[in-house]
Write a structure and sequence with these properties.
Strand content: under 5%
Order of helices and strands: HHHH
Structural class: mainly alpha
Shape: elongated
Length: 76
């Protein structure tokens, strides 16, 4: 998406000066800004106990799904 904007007269002869004058920052730059200026690491530490419980639940569910297959393979 391009934005048409009025630019200074000295930029008129520069190709694509009107579309890049007020463009949004790239996704990488915005992600870098988020990582550097937010407290995401503190939020992870606050939610660590819940995340650990979810991970243990996923592991137990995976084990319960693969036990019947493992038993069939071992009993052959």
């Amino acid at each position: 998406m391009t934005t048409i904007a009025t630019t200074y007269s000295r930029h008129i002869r520069i190709p694509a000066a009107d579309s890049r004058a007020f463009s949004r920052p790239s996704y990488i730059k915005r992600f870098k800004y988020f990582v550097e200026h937010s407290d995401w690491d503190a939020e992870i530490l606050v939610q660590e106990e819940f995340a650990n419980k979810v991970c243990v639940g996923v592991i137990i569910t995976a084990v319960l799904c693969f036990v019947p297959i493992l038993v069939k393979v071992l009993l052959r």
